[in-house]
From TrEMBL:
Pfam families: KilA-N. This is KilA-N domain-containing protein. InterPro entries: KilA/APSES_HTH (IPR018004), KilA_N (IPR017880). It comes from Blautia hansenii. Residues 2-139 form the KilA-N domain. It comes from the Bacteria.
Amino acid sequence: MKNRIIDVQNVKITISKEELDDYICITDIAKVKSNSSRAADVVRNWLRNRGTLEYLSVWEQIYNPAFKVFESEHFKKQAGLLTFTPSVSEWIQKTNAVGLYVKRGKYGGTYAHKDVAFEFASAISPVFKLYLIKEFQRLKEEENNARQIEWNAKRFLSKSNYLIQTDAVKNYILPQRDFKKDSKWIAYAEEADIVNVALFGFTAKAWREKNPELAKKNNVRDFATINELTVISNLETHNAQMIREGKKKEERFEVLKEIAEYQLNILNTAEQIKMIEICDNDLTSSEALCLRDSFPI
């Protein structure tokens, strides 16, 4: 999910995953110092402080090439004046800042990059800041563990079910073949490709030819989604059973293709499954998936 909630000393803090990084709702943090109706005023008063503006300006110059330094100087010159009551939206609009943003509607409020949010928490309560950092780190550890579990699940599904299929090939197909004209590895590769083509629409060889560098350390299934690997698991089990039943490859392929289309559609459209999926945003995987779309069958 894009938004996560952590509980810091009985205060619910919303965290939003944005393109740049994690952003924390500082309007929620402000509730430590004031009630919900006045939380926005706490944020506004914090922005009036020259020290705050100095910190924000330096942060933006480090991480935001489009930041308008000259415009930020106008804010700093007015810091401390009674008539100076800047809004977050005004700061963003005039300086092109990215460290803060304002969100409307559900989970609305002012959000700050985690570096900025921790600085805001220091101004509110140094003790609360420590608890905030602790809970934030706990959240990130849970997310990292979840990603590791997903990766392990992918590899387990891929490897364990491939063993089921190759065992069926060895026991029910290889004995009927002419070993002078064929070999075990060819038979295994052909059976794997029945599943690959049924699901992906291309063979492992086609993928390797398109991705020679990736193929040195990876195979096509390393870049499949958890939904695709779940379907692969089912396809390999079905394929092994059909092999035992003596069905020809052509017949098995048609059956597997229908199963793949149906099951993948169910998984991709089920809202509950979508909510527990963890998206792979790493560039390498994205590039591989884009390349996959152009593979020949």
